[in-house]
Amino acid sequence: AYGIPKKWYFPFTISYWTGETYIEPNWIKKFKEINLFRWIICKKCHMYDRFDYSTSSLNQIIIDSTRNQNYFEDNEHLNDQIIGVRLRNLTKIFDRKKFAVQNLSLDLYEGEILSLLGHNGAGKTTTMSILIGLIPATSGTATIYNQDINIDIDKIRKNLGWCSQHNLFFEKLTVEEHLLFVSKLKQVQNIEMNNMIENMLFDIGLTSKRNAIVSTLSGGMKRKLSVA
């Protein structure tokens, strides 16, 4: 099964009936950011923690990073930029022993394009799967425009796109029908839907193909539609 499971008592929560999201207290967010309870997870996994997640150790990382600038991008020009995605100590453990992602902290800025590079098994796909709510993280936290992926994933998905490596289409539907389908999934209001689809078709250069069956599109056109 995929997705982040809700608590068993979710039908009894206010947010389920009103749509209002629970806001975590700041002290809980701080605990998540420094992975204060990571030792509990590792103990359950019958493993020794490989890192000291105390605040002093995190400060030491910051100090060490300033001593090795050759390994870090100079991002002073981004100080005034808005952080769109923030990862803090994101960790995913499979089968209680295999680290797919370990202690990943990263800021993604608005207007910037980021590429994740790594060998097979480095954790690229796992990281992306966590960010889109396909699988839950073992520990750590991530926010997208200040919305927590563990709490606000339904809201996040309305403004988040995911283009997989392989095309995922209904081969007998048209280009426009695919955009209508995705718009419904994102709960776009009917009054806004037509304008949004028109703009999207124009942006990806498929206006003339709006009524074309997807199976008749070229490979490049299919990738354009995937991005949309």
Low-confidence stretches: 36-66
**Global shape:** globular
Q: What's the gyration radius in Å?
A: 21 Å
Oligomeric state of shown chains:
single chain
Number of domains: 2
Q: Enumerate how many helices there are, as a single number.
A: 9
Neighbour order of strands in the largest sheet: 2-1-3-4
CATH classification class of the largest domain: Alpha Beta
What's the main sheet like?
Answer: 4 strands, antiparallel
Which percent range describes the beta-strand content?
5-15%
Distance between the termini: 26 Å
| Total beta strand runs | 4
CATH topology term of the largest domain: Rossmann fold
Mean pLDDT over all positions: 78
CATH architecture of the largest domain: 3-Layer(aba) Sandwich
Q: Element order, helices and strands? A: HHHHEEHEEHHHH
Q: Output the structural class.
A: alpha+beta
Write a structural description:
With 228 residues, the chain is an alpha+beta fold. The chain folds into 2 domains: 10-153, 3-Layer(aba) Sandwich (Rossmann fold), CATH 3.40.50; 175-227, no CATH class. It is 35% helix and 14% strand. The protein is built from 9 helices and 4 strands. The protein has a 4-stranded antiparallel sheet with strand order 2-1-3-4, sandwiched between helices. Residues 36-66 have low confidence and may be disordered.
Keywords:
4 strands; Rossmann fold; single chain; 9 helices; alpha+beta; 4-stranded antiparallel β-sheet; about 230 residues; 2 domains
Helices and strands in order, then pairings?
Blueprint: H1 14-18, H2 26-33, H3 38-44, H4 55-67, E1 83-94, E2 98-109, H5 124-131, E3 139-144, E4 147-148, H6 153-157, H7 175-185, H8 190-203, H9 219-227
Antiparallel strand pairs: 1-2, 1-3, 3-4
